[in-house]
Amino acid sequence: MAKRPPRFRGIRHVAFNVQNLEECEKFYTEIMGMKMLWRANDDLLYLTCGNDNLSLSRAKKRPVKGGALDHYGFIVGSKADLNRWFIFMQEEGVTLL
Questions:
Q1: Is the pLDDT of residue 66 over 60?
Q2: pLDDT for position 51
Q3: Which of 1, 35, 95, 96 is buried most, with the most CB atoms less than 10 Å from its CB?
Q4: Is the pLDDT of residue 75 over 80?
Q5: How far apart are CA 38 and CA 48, in angstroms?
Q6: pTM of this prediction?
C-alpha cells in the first residue's frame, strides 16, 4: 500500500440534484438557516453556513437508484496535498471520475 497523504480537514462541498429546487431552497434557507452564497442560474444555486457550501441543482429527471447525491468535496491543506491524494488513489486502483 502506498503512503497515505495528510488527512482531510473536513467536507467542504456537497451537491444534490433535486426535483423541486424552490422548495429545497426554502427548506435550507428558512428552516435550516443557510445563506445564499451564489445563484449561478435558474437551475443551480449554492448555499452556505459560513465554512462550507451546499450545491442544489434542478434534476432534469427523477433521481434513479443511488439517490440525488451528485458529488461531494473534501478540504485539503494545499494543492500539493490534493496532488498527493490523486497519486495515492491512482496507486491504490481507485477509479477517478
A1: no
A2: 83
A3: 35
A4: yes
A5: 9
A6: 0.74
